[in-house]
Amino acid sequence: MQRILLAVLGLTLSMGLTTGCATIKRANVGRTAAAILISDEQEEQLGRQVKQELETKEKIKYVEDPAVVEYVRNVSTRILQQANKDRKNVKWKVNVIDDPKMVNAFATPGGYLYVYTGLLLAADNEAELAGVMGHEAGHVVGRHSAQAMMLQYGEQAVIEAALGKNANMVAQLAASLAGTGAGLAFSRGNETEADELGARYTSAVGYAPQGLVTFFGKLAAQEGQTPGVLKWLSTHPPSSERVSHLTTYISQKGLTGSDLGADRLAAIKQRVRK
Ligand SMILES: [Zn+2]
Q1: What separation in Å is there between the alpha carbon of 108 and the centre of ligand 1?
Q2: How far is the CA of 139 from the centre of ligand 1 (A)?
């Protein structure tokens, strides 16, 4: 019975993502399938394993300055409280990676968020950082990682990985997230959903919801000119369609907020540069 359910859901998931049905419907079908196939507990187990792999094989190093870590966690926590209204029981874990040349941030199943110091330096104000964190939280709320992994590796492989029986997949995933290769490929529908959720969460706590829009614009302008790796840009192409959709969404939903927090981020960037 469970096998049949798995097969049906798998089919629904892949059909939903490959046929041309409406974006919202597609995202919801995928989210439901992901929720049934992978439990919160399994997501947590996966996230923990990816974290270990990032630390041991990918050799990520965390920022040691407690002021920087506390700052990022404070900004994130306000947004994550909003995200928890859409998906309860996520126990967020925010990690700051010490790599000023890498402009990147990502989320893994289980509510693990990672942000690089390179992204802090690339942002002009706190609202932009908040926009990125809100977007990544949106991926967790939408269970996008679980969906993308199931499409990329197959349901069985992902479930085995959660059970600790597929070290190879965990290693591949960690390498693609932290390395210079392509990250986990989310569908366009998932990216749109994460953009919208991120704008909602940041606006709800008073940030200017356009933070993500201005950050996209800045990265696009810097592409090819900045030393270092704009990895977040490679997994988040700022097409004009994307930027105009987000701008329209913000105005149609009446999302407001004026807090930019440029001074607060500037002080932290100084500490990061030291
Ligand atoms: Zn994304």
Answers
A1: 11
A2: 7
* Residues near 237 by beta carbon (within 8 Å), at least 6 away in sequence: none
Distances from the Cα of 236 to the Cα of 16, 94, 183, 191, 217, angstroms: 22, 20, 10, 8, 12
Tell me the three-class secondary structure of 190-206, residue by residue.
Answer: HHHHHHHHHHHHHHHCC
Ligand 1 centroid, distance to 211 Cα (angstroms): 15
Tell me the CA–centroid distance for residue 194 and ligand 1, in Å: 6
pLDDT tens for the chain, 274 residues: list them: 444 444 444 444 443 343 334 444 555 556 777 777 788 998 999 999 999 999 999 999 999 999 999 999 999 999 999 999 999 989 999 999 999 999 999 999 999 999 999 999 999 999 999 999 999 999 999 999 888 888 888 888 888 888 889 898 888 888 888 876 666 778 899 999 999 999 999 999 999 999 999 999 988 888 777 666 788 888 888 888 999 999 999 999 999 999 999 999 999 999 999 8
- How many Å lie between the centroid of ligand 1 and the Cα of residue 160? 25
Centre of ligand 1 from the C-alpha of residue 115, in Å: 13
pTM above 0.70, yes or no: yes
